[in-house]
Amino acid sequence: MKANAIQLTILAAFAGACSSSPSQPKPEQVNETRTISRTNAVTARPASSKDAGEWNEARGGLLRTFAFRALDRDLLEEGRQYLAQACEADPNDSTSHAALARLYLAEGDAQSALVYASRASAAAPTDPEVNLVYAAALAETNQPSKATEQLEQSWASVSSDPEFARSILMHYATMGDSERAQDFVTKELTENPELAGSWAAAGDLMLAEGDMEGAAASYQHALKIDPTVYTPPSMDDYVGRVSRNEDPILASARAAEVAGNWQEAVNLYQFMVGKESVPPAAHLGLARCFSQLNRPQEAELQLSQVDPGVRGWRGHLLQARLDIAASRWSNARTSCLLALEERPGLRSAELLLQFVTEKEEAAKVK
């Protein structure tokens, strides 16, 4: 069974550890092996069960540290051996068990992953990260119902985590259960509308269904609640998210615009327009803000500073609305068609074009 979205999510932190191991261990790894050997040779097990438990826990922690160091150096096999020893030393070490389960999932050994993931979950039943691993192992061993149950139980304790919400949604999608995915999103929007995760999940679902405008609106709402929430790069133009390399003033202006702080955005855009070299994005942003502030003449003035070939679909759509407001039906039709050329199927452009066509037909009758 191919790795599903949950598995890909939980394996992200281990991406660097999934490459093949070097044929020979590095000197540091050899030294660590010798360190453990010496530690085992000179340390006697305490007599009492309490002391033995503490000794095993300490030894397991030491082995886990060596394991992560090995994985950081791409020593996959050595890291696995250390993790296995850590799990044996301390059966309650959920971190080592979950980490070993991740490694097995990355290699496609779902059965081995399930063994360690189930032990990790038994040791830490309320840890959402552990339960993500366990759910992935269940899904990969053809136990989707149990995986769903595991995820839903964990969700109750981490309902403010946007990425966990996405993991659940992607799990439903992987199972092909679109109805359950829709029910999950509807329930979250109804019960937790104040959480960014609810809106981000709604955006994901709408994007999967091809509803670009609905997805954009949901992502924008999520960003207003939590500006750090992840949105797909393909939606950057829709939600106004800026490039990391963009001018910081332009980035701040667009962030203010996304948040609905129109006058603040105007001030920042105007600062950029006052420079010698003005990026088209500044004129376009200023035009959008003036339109929101019901200042159409100023909006048109800014649009006129941008060549139609670089206005983008948002610029064409804004021009169409301004043309409609001024009853310039032929111009509005052209702007709608330009928007649809860049964004085929854009529902707002289609509706405006339909409105313009009706007005043109009515004008012909008169």
Description:
It is a single chain. It contains 20 helices and no strands. With about 375 residues, the protein is mainly α. It has 3 domains: about 1-140, Alpha Horseshoe (Serine Threonine Protein Phosphatase 5, Tetratricopeptide repeat), CATH 1.25.40.10; about 155-240, Alpha Horseshoe (Serine Threonine Protein Phosphatase 5, Tetratricopeptide repeat); about 275-365, Serine Threonine Protein Phosphatase 5, Tetratricopeptide repeat. Mean pLDDT is about 80; it is low at about 1-50.
Rough shape?
A: elongated
The N- and C-terminal alpha carbons lie at a distance of 65 Å
Number of strands: 0
Main β-sheet: number of strands, strand sense, barrel status? none
Superfamily (CATH H level) name of the largest domain = Tetratricopeptide repeat domain
CATH architecture of the largest domain: Alpha Horseshoe
Helix run count: 20
Provide the CATH topology of the largest domain.
Serine Threonine Protein Phosphatase 5, Tetratricopeptide repeat
Low-confidence stretches: 1-49
Helical residue percent band: over 70%
Query: What portion of the residues fall into strands of 2 or more residues?
Result: under 5%
Helix/strand class: mainly alpha
Gyration radius (Cα, Å) is 28 Å
* Helix/strand order, N-terminal first: HHHHHHHHHHHHHHHHHHHH
**Which CATH top level class of the largest domain fits?**
Mainly Alpha
Total count of domains: 3
Residue-averaged pLDDT: 78
In short:
It contains 20 helices and no strands.
